[in-house]
Every structure is written in structure tokens, then in C-alpha cells.
Design a protein that fits this description.
The protein has five helices and seven strands. By secondary structure, it is α+β, with helices and mostly antiparallel strands. The chain has a single domain, classed as Nucleoside diphosphate kinase-like domain (Alpha-Beta Plaits). Helix 2 runs antiparallel to helix 3 (55-65). The radius of gyration is 14 Å and the shape is globular.
Length: 149
């Protein structure tokens, strides 16, 4: 199981993106909202900072996404036999990611990036790399967001 996030800047394409993912994988989803831009900022930083993502990259993502409704579509994606491989980036050395999910993210980003105003990398979809990232994402959602009923 991998946790995916459709970021606020891609929410208008949520149904289409979910439909695309469901062609390959079993997916359930639920919406989460953030009460303030500050809580959303802490969430975004919490998602990326532990992986040593440079703060300037995190802030450029946040600046694009904060202009939208502060809602994310949280997806729970089941994959039977994930192909886990080691990260090649030095800042992520010693950790693993799912090649299947990386391909999925790339395809979705390529299809929708031209539709996002002021697009910067990763403002469409994020998918956890591994179980540790799943736990982090869930903990951050519980701390900073509220499930939309």
C-alpha cells in the first residue's frame, strides 16, 4: 500500500487522475482540508524536509499550492508486487522507492503539468516511497488536517 496525495493545484483533475490510476491499481481516497495556510505549510515541509529536499524547492511548491483551496485528495493505492529499488540520489542513499509508483507519478505529471498555472515540479501528485513515508504522511495528516466528511 502506498499513500498518494493529489495536491490542491491538481484537485480540479482529481476524478480524471483517479480514473487513470484505477486502470492499473486498486485505489480508495478521501479528502482532507487544512484550516490555515500555516498548517498546510507545516504539512508540506513535513512531507519533504525529512528527505533533505532543499527548502527553496519546498517553498516554491508551497507558494503555487497555497493559492488554491487547501484541500488534498489522499489516495490509498494497493499494489500486489511492488518493485522496490534503492534511491540513487545521494541525499536519499540507503532508502528504497517503488519503481511502479515513480512511473505512475511521472506519467500523471507529464499529462497535467501544462494545465497547472505557474507549474513547478511536484505540485500535482506525491506518492510515498515506502512504509516509513506512509507512516510520516499519516502522522502529518492527523496533526495538521481534518478529514472532509
Amino acid at each position: 500500500m502506498f499513500i498518494g496525495l493529489l495536491w490542491p493545484s491538481a484537485m480540479r483533475y482529481s476524478d480524471n487522475i483517479l480514473s487513470r490510476i484505477r486502470k492499473q491499481y486498486s485505489v480508495t481516497s478521501e479528502l482532507y482540508s487544512f484550516a490555515t495556510a500555516g498548517s498546510f505549510k507545516k504539512f508540506v515541509v513535513g512531507i519533504y524536509k525529512p528527505d533533505n529536499t532543499p527548502m527553496r524547492r519546498i517553498m516554491s511548491k508551497f507558494k503555487v499550492m497555497r493559492k488554491c483551496n487547501l484541500v488534498v485528495n489522499v489516495m490509498y493505492i494497493e499494489i500486489d508486487n511492488p518493485e522496490m529499488i534503492p534511491h540513487r540520489k545521494s541525499r536519499l542513499r540507503g532508502t528504497f522507492y517503488c519503481r511502479n509508483m515513480k512511473s505512475l507519478k511521472k506519467a500523471i505529471r507529464n499529462k497535467y503539468k501544462g494545465k497547472i498555472k505557474r507549474y513547478v515540479h511536484d505540485v500535482i501528485i506525491h506518492i510515498s516511497d515506502n512504509e516509513e513515508h506512509n507512516r510520516r504522511t499519516k502522522r502529518l495528516l492527523d496533526k495538521f488536517a481534518q478529514r472532509v466528511q
